[in-house]
Design goal:
By secondary structure, the protein is α+β, with helices and mostly antiparallel strands. It is built from 12 helices and 32 strands.
């Protein structure tokens, strides 16, 4: 806040003289995304001066811009300050951690990181040039989007590009790619062109303005491209959209108005999809995820939805003015879609009635017309760095020993184009590019994937537009992972400054130890985690470790019904005396016992309890929840345990997953 006030007082002088001001810091973070805020806070907590250059006027990127339904894959992948963010969200809602949240709640938390870290924020500034001396960035020159400011130069020892576009990386002369590689490039199978059934049109949707008449031209939204060979590469970019926050609380709702450039012909293809599919449920065309306080995070769903397919291919390399036009086009399309669904008489009445329940929330995005200022830039430039993550990493066929974060999400790409195809002698419209393929276990992201090639730049780290193939990036590119990699990048930048080394030469083990020893960078005692991989049943036990999706980590223990007494103990010990809360991880499974019996010991006394799983609700994409087993006074010299057994009212299969011990703050 101090820096912002200073700049405002200088504004008339700068505007009048057109002068250039130079600011100097230890670390410059470009992009105020979630990764950018966490990176800046991490650097500040390590005693470094830091500035965040943010082209917009809101911190947190997508995490405060509508993406409240967190894409996560597996909670094992989230650690450090990234996990702290979701813990702080949980604290707001009265839970341990929470992965679905309102935009304003996220914004408050990011702003609190900024305030507590004493971070200088340069809002409304964007890079126009990076000045290098050899392989090092000496300074970056900024364009001030406000008419009141002159030019700005930022000089720093280290730079971290946390933008979704990779603009600093590109201007620093670092190698990158845009689009999809051919499968042959990295010996992959899910890169390049793919036409699959997900988010697809059913057969029989006619593409022409006049049905059956190819001379009448194509409906809006359909390109005249042709389908290339499966797995072939191109420069097409997966579709962008907005993650939409609406509310159905009348007193907090504003109606969705007709856009000034509204054109109902843009949505003719949607009407044909509705008619062919016969589905009159609004949720078939937009994915509604409920947020707290009767709000939404709406995402793309189906063949025609909020993704503006094919209209963003030029975005990564576009000028700032052209990007603004692309943003405005997406905004017009999306608001027009919402208006169309609520008001066009050709839309089934059931859908219109449902759509008109929703309006813009008065208490969200109050500075931008109650609509998010953040376009969902799912993929833009991707660095070609010291190591390129590929499908082999995602599927655990390759592993790295310099991991500085973990990824756990499906290999995911949204559609890239909407084209005309012929099938069984008929002409129809189809989408191409949507891929959703499961991965193996959570896997490490190499430190070399966030560092440029050493011959290109030695004081830059890139945790968002990192080095990965298109399909691997689709697994890594999730907000929790970006925040982890942002913290790792900040630690690396600090190590490089302190050691006088290039970022490619820092000791990665020190980054890895940070998450074990001081994950919040403030001396807070780390959690104690006991996963099933650290537990061994007694000889002859019927407990079996199984790989099942949805647990904490890649596996858990299962006990099928048996009359023989069985017990499985998860031991733990703390390093500091204090008050702790003990949790176990629970996820619903078919055939499992409604009740689970367990014992918790603080090392001196044992507490017997029964968990009633019918009383537990799992929220959001996460397949499980941490269930509190109570608070305990634990001593460093007295180990405790959680023991699962089949005594008491047990009918069905039992499961035992991770145990978590969290210090009270």
């Amino acid at each position: 806040m101090r820096k912002i006030i200073l700049l405002l007082t200088l504004a008339p002088l700068l505007a009048a003289g057109g002068c250039t001001r130079t600011l100097e810091y230890d670390i410059c973070v470009y992009g105020g995304s979630s990764a950018g805020v966490i990176a800046a806070y991490s650097a500040a907590m390590q005693g470094k001066t830091v500035v965040v250059v943010e082209p917009g006027y809101r911190a947190g990127g997508l995490s405060s811009g509508g993406l409240g339904q967190t894409d996560i894959g597996n909670k094992q992948a989230v650690e450090g300050l990234s996990l702290d963010f979701y813990r702080r969200v949980g604290q707001h809602y009265g839970e341990l951690e929470k992965w679905i949240f309102e935009p304003s709640v996220a914004l408050d938390i990011f702003n609190d990181y900024i305030e507590r870290g004493g971070i200088d924020m340069l809002y409304g500034h964007r890079i126009v040039r990076a000045d290098k001396q050899g392989r090092r960035i000496e300074s970056i020159r900024l364009q001030n989007t406000s008419k009141y400011f002159g030019r700005t130069v930022v000089r720093a020892k280290q730079y971290i590009d946390c933008s979704y576009e990779g603009d600093l990386m590109a201007r620093a002369g670092v190698s990158y790619v845009v689009g999809r590689e051919d499968n042959a490039t990295y010996s992959e199978t899910w890169n390049g062109v793919h036409m699959r059934p997900t988010h697809q049109f059913p057969d029989g949707v006619d593409p022409y303005v006049i049905e059956g008449d190819s001379t009448s031209g194509l409906l809006w939204g359909i390109s005249d491209g042709t389908l290339a060979a499966e797995g072939s590469g191109d420069d097409k970019v997966q579709a962008y959209n907005f993650r939409i926050c609406l509310t159905d609380v009348p007193e907090n709702s504003l109606p969705i108005e007709r856009p000034a450039d509204y054109d109902s012909t843009r949505y003719e293809l949607l009407l044909r999809l509705i008619n062919v599919s016969g589905n009159h449920n609004l949720g078939a065309y937009m994915h509604f995820s409920p947020m707290p306080n009767r709000k939404t995070d709406i995402n793309n769903n189906g063949g025609f939805s909020t993704d503006m397919i094919g209209m963003n291919h030029s975005y990564p390399e576009a000028s700032y003015r052209e990007r603004e036009r692309i943003f405005d086009a997406h905004l017009s399309y999306t608001l027009g879609l919402l208006y169309f669904l609520g008001h066009d008489a050709r839309v089934p009445e059931k859908m219109r009635t449902e759509m008109l329940r929703w309006g813009l929330p008065k208490d969200e995005y109050t500075d931008s017309g109650h609509w998010t200022p953040q376009l969902y830039v799912r993929e833009s430039r991707r660095m070609v760095g010291e190591y390129v993550a590929t499908q082999d990493d995602c599927e655990n066929r390759t592993t790295v020993d310099d991991g500085v974060g973990m990824a756990a999400y499906t290999m995911d790409s949204h559609n890239c184009q909407r084209i005309v195809v012929r099938k069984e002698g008929k002409t129809m419209v189809k989408n191409e590019g949507d891929v959703q393929i499961g991965i193996g276990s959570p896997y490490p992201v190499s430190y070399r994937s966030i560092t440029p090639k050493r011959e290109e730049c030695t004081n830059l780290l890139v945790p968002v537009c990192l080095s990965a193939s298109h399909i691997a990036y689709g697994s890594i590119r999730m907000e929790p992972v970006f925040m982890v990699l942002g913290q790792s990048a900040a630690k690396a930048a600090c190590l490089a400054i302190d050691g006088g080394t290039d970022v490619q030469e820092v000791d990665v083990r020190q980054i890895q130890r940070m998450y074990d020893e001081d994950p919040l960078l403030d001396g807070t005692a780390p959690d104690i985690m006991v996963d099933d991989t650290a537990v061994e049943p007694a000889a002859g036990s019927a407990w079996q470790r199984v790989n099942i999706y949805g647990g904490y980590g890649p596996s858990l223990y299962r006990l099928d019904p048996t009359s023989r007494p069985e017990a499985l103990r998860y031991p733990f010990s703390v390093k500091r005396d204090g008050r702790y809360t003990v949790y176990t991880y629970y996820s619903k499974r078919g055939g499992m016992s409604k009740l689970s019996q367990l014992t918790v010991s603080d090392g001196n006394t044992a507490k017997r309890m029964t968990l009633d799983y019918d009383a537990i609700t799992i929220h959001g994409q996460t397949a499980g929840e941490w269930i509190s087993l109570g608070e305990y006074d634990l001593r460093a010299d007295t180990p405790g345990y959680v023991e699962f057994d089949n005594r008491g009212e047990v009918s069905g299969t039992l499961y035992a997953d991770a145990v978590l011990v969290v210090p009270k703050r």
